[in-house]
Amino acid sequence: MAKTRPEDLDWNNLGFKYHDLPFRWVDKFQDGKWQGGQLTSDSTITFNEAAEELHYGQEIFEGLKAYRRKDGGINLFRPDQNAKRMTKSAERLLMEPYPEDKFIEAVKQVVLANQEFVPPYGSGGTLYLRPFMMGTQSIVGVAPSETYEFRIYATPVGAYVKGLNPMPYVISDYDRAAPYGTGQAKTAGNYASSLMPSLLAKKAGFADALYLDPKEHKYIDEFGGANFFGITKDGQFQTPKSDSILPSITKHSILKIAADLGLDPIETKIPIDNIDQFAEAGAMGTAAVISPVGSLTYQDKKYSFGNEKEAGPITQKLYDTLTGIQFGDLEDKYNWTIKLS
Ligand code: PLP
Ligand code: COI
């Protein structure tokens, strides 16, 4: 695959796509230890046809971004939280955790090695980082791998959902994760099971599917790639409490921001039957940032939030505050950002 060059990129219209950049990180776990890791230009991975991850899905990943500041420097946003969550995912999938300090160091090295690909301030783009790990042992019986490969690639991206335009979503009849399953882990299987419901939603004219809790199908869980929030008509920020959703780093950050803004935030079970309590709703995640939900269709009934054309005032304020901190424009009172340069 041809390597992308900075001059090939239209910074203001990046989309959410893969580009083969000059450098990525690679480390291997073999003979009972991680080998130390290094940057490589090789974007191809080679493993045996019987490799664990191909058959039994021992694969976990993360997603985080590097942000170009106004002064030209580069920020990372809470990479320690991604390192921690990847350890938790590894434990759930019985994989060998990557040392968290090495994770952060590797993220920094990948960004610095590809720094000409961190989009300009004001373009709306960021450098998306995708740490991932897979079981590589050739194995036929179902058992955990004894060897692993850990990698981090980077790709410049624009918005996952373009602009702050509210989009229509639909409640799926399918589940993405099982009760007591792997919903809290960032593992490939959860995304594989979301592909069909997501396609069905898109074919029916929606931006994507929103899942209910897999046990009772009564409470809102999350989107295939982001957590859900709603702002009640009297201004409270609510986000689902559930054992089958991914603990979003964006969500945890917004809970703090919402408290600072006096929105009395809570994580609580959100009955789908109470959906009309919300004046605003949205999706939140690294890729999604904050994406307003214009409407939600459930059992053929459509619930609208605001005028469906522009983000509500609280959603806009949350977006401005979060991105203001990430890009270094606002005070970072919780020390969430790391200045890389
Ligand atoms: N939920 C799912 C299923 C996701 O894939 C993501 C994206 O990482 C999120 C939520 C949001 O998590 P974060 O804010 O840590 O990116
Ligand atoms: C992220 O926000 O980092 C994600 O992983 C969501 C999606 C692109 C799978």
From TrEMBL:
Does Transferase show up as a keyword for this record? Answer: yes
Q: Name one Pfam family in it.
A: Aminotran_4
Keyword line = Amino-acid biosynthesis, Aminotransferase, Branched-chain amino acid biosynthesis, Pyridoxal phosphate, Transferase
Q: Which InterPro entries match?
A: Aminotrans_IV, Aminotrans_IV_CS, Aminotransferase-like, B_amino_transII, BCAT-like_C, BCAT-like_N, BCAT_family
Amino-acid biosynthesis is among the record's keywords: yes
Tell me which NCBIfam families the record gives: ilvE_II, PRK13357.1
Its EC number is 2.6.1.42
Pathway listed: Amino-acid biosynthesis; L-valine biosynthesis; L-valine from pyruvate: step 4/4; Amino-acid biosynthesis; L-isoleucine biosynthesis; L-isoleucine from 2-oxobutanoate: step 4/4; Amino-acid biosynthesis; L-leucine biosynthesis; L-leucine from 3-methyl-2-oxobutanoate: step 4/4
Top-level class of the enzyme under EC nomenclature: transferase
Taxonomically, what lineage is the organism?
Answer: Bacteria, Bacillati, Bacillota, Bacilli, Lactobacillales
Entry cofactors:
pyridoxal 5'-phosphate
Gene Ontology biological process terms from the UniProt entry: isoleucine biosynthetic process; L-leucine biosynthetic process; L-valine biosynthetic process
| Protein family per UniProt | Belongs to the class-IV pyridoxal-phosphate-dependent aminotransferase family.
What is the recorded name of this protein? Branched-chain-amino-acid aminotransferase
Q: Which SUPFAM superfamilies match?
A: D-aminoacid aminotransferase-like PLP-dependent enzymes
One annotated GO molecular function is: L-isoleucine-2-oxoglutarate transaminase activity
Gene3D superfamilies named in the record? 3.30.470.10, D-amino Acid Aminotransferase, subunit A, domain 2
Q: Which reaction does it catalyse?
A: L-valine + 2-oxoglutarate = 3-methyl-2-oxobutanoate + L-glutamate; L-isoleucine + 2-oxoglutarate = (S)-3-methyl-2-oxopentanoate + L-glutamate; L-leucine + 2-oxoglutarate = 4-methyl-2-oxopentanoate + L-glutamate
Q: Which PROSITE patterns match?
A: AA_TRANSFER_CLASS_4
Residues annotated with N6-(pyridoxal phosphate)lysine modification: 186
**What gene codes for this chain?**
ilvE
